[in-house]
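protien #1 (seq + structre)
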Amino acid sequence: MSQLNSQQAAPAMQELKVGVIGGGFMARTHADAIRRAGAQLIGVRSNGEQSTRQASAALGVPGFGSVEALLAQCDAVHVTSPNALHAEQAASALAAGLSVVCEKPLATSAREAGELALQASRSRAVASVPFVYRYHPMVRQARAHVQEGKLGRLLTVRGQYLQDWMHTVSDSNWRVEPAKGGPSRAFSDIGSHLVDLLEFIAGERIVRLNATTSIAHKQRGAVDVDTEDAAALIVQMASGAIGTLMVSQVNAGRKNALTIELSGDRSALEFKQEKPEELWIGKPDMSSILSRQAADLSPDAARLSVVPAGHPMGYLDAFAAFVADTYAAIRGEAPDGLPTFADGARACRLTDAVLESADSGDWIDTDD
């Protein structure tokens, strides 16, 4: 068995043996990033024999008969299975001494996610969560803008993450079922990205929130729907800044409209994921668009800018950069901004707070 432990040096990338648990779009996305990072993808295990055969054919690697058999051959594993399986599978990998990349949500409750984060902190393994929007160069530029004091004192925040893939009553997915997807759907799935990005760029936490949720279709096919299609939040940051966040998977025509704006007493900035090559910078006398050009970027943004300006970078580049940083951490490096299980647990805490507030109507403290 090829495991990382306290007696072994981390393997070089061409020797790093990596497995994928799960199938579908995210398994393919992870597989692409694994290969781009130079690691060896050795196999896959999905949720059953047929789905494992399909995933094996799609990824071009052997299918394993069980998760345990796959773990026994790996140095690291990527967990891309349905949400309800994340905690158990990630915990098993950590217990086996493996480094883990686990899709969000890290778990379907803040309690389980916190336990996983604690387990990871007590191990020598690297445990990361793919909040990959952190890895757009212009997100790092926005973060540097804040860190350098150019934003000034934070006054307001605004964010939205809008999709339409669940817009009609005929649209369905395993995430609709709480037994597979957990008690939250839209916020857990995409709102987690939004709050992670907000806290990452702002450099401060949401300390309390008030939320309401809605269900667009009470039934999808034969499934009674109990999980939200949309969530609207009022948030307060640690500095006292206030703002609004909107999350929806039923906004017609919106495919992946992730937008975040921070306004301070010196300037404002806005990043749109669907226009990742640009950062809007606002000032009372003049606003401007900063394009991704390495000469104009902060060191961390320039590090992630791997092709010349004018050659667009996007989601798959951000994902590959995240996986490359995870593997750099396995080698013993300390890449800045790598989202860990602690960040995954933080997103689960905020998700639980959204559900609690929507149920009670109360403001919920979130800075624990």
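ok now protien #2
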Amino acid sequence: MFVFVCAGCGARLTTPLSQIALPVHAHQRYGNGIQLPVLMESGTFAVDPEPWGPPRRRWEEIDPDEAMARGIYAPVSALSDGAPGAIVISPGDARGTLLIPEKSGGSCCGLDGGDGPNMACEACDLPVASRIDDCSLWQGVWLAPNAVRRHRLDDTNNDAPLTWAELLAEGKDTPPFEPISAWGGSRLGSDHYWSWSPQWEAAAGRALAHLLAASEGRPVTVPDGPIAEVFQRALDILLPVGTAAWRAVLAGPGLPAPGVDADILLVPTHPQTGETWTPAGPSTSAYPVPLPFGIWLWLASPRPYLSLPMSGGMPEGVLRDDPPAPRPHHLFQPDPETFQHTLVRLPDVRSPWLRKILENFTQHQRARLF
């Protein structure tokens, strides 16, 4: 467990926190006018290893060698020159801070951190964090890495991360559909509607980039069912046809060992450490495609909306849906920004066929692939 204190005066700025992996959707911008929830569970923090926030430089101002040194292998619109290592926490876990009114940024419905840190230490006025709660952004407080210090607490809690078996026993999966809240209500007069989970869209954006890199330009097939609903349409559009397809399968703790004919493995990442599950045996040479553990767990053990037997008057063996399962009214679309963010950071993107996907990305968006 840790607390974060002000680098200027040492005042405590957070409650006790334990570290987890940075969520894939941490910087996701979802929809328009959407009211997203808090990013982090209370009592946790995560660290972004990459630079984040202002100031930014456009791609034309960046030397290609500098971009490559930062692990970026294809053009992007802009790069942050902020300090790497920003720490994100739940807003309710912040202590001893005050908002800086003049640092509201170019926000729409809340704060977006566009003007830099908008929270100051209450004790010494040092800007220490950015509160993010604008529409279409995940809510959080981002502590500036050069303005805070991390202190370990002396306690008797076991800091060892959960084992894969313990994670399976906990059973914390992430359903693919959820109600989305909108500012001002939707056109149907409600303040929410059912849609694909933003977390699933972000996770699929990252995984799709890895699937394309793993394919080496060949077609890829995934198992029928929810996995195909998420990935197969994009794979069929973005990859060529007419050649021998590579086979991607779901693999991970508690599942049967993947066969030797599996070329690509869809595997979980540990929610605390961020480590990717690794198989033993012949499949160790297959390309691992990471999925957040909660999403992987739902795919490995989906919880269908079960039909419930009716009592009184219904014939024996007749079932009905009660209530009907809510479903989105559109095909699944991976998150475009997460896809691009991941793909430009994979060395394989330097191959001409992958670079062409980036060059035609606007057309793919217009076709509602993303």
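Helices lie at 64-69, 164-170, 198-215, 226-238, 293-300, 336-343, 352-359, 361-366.
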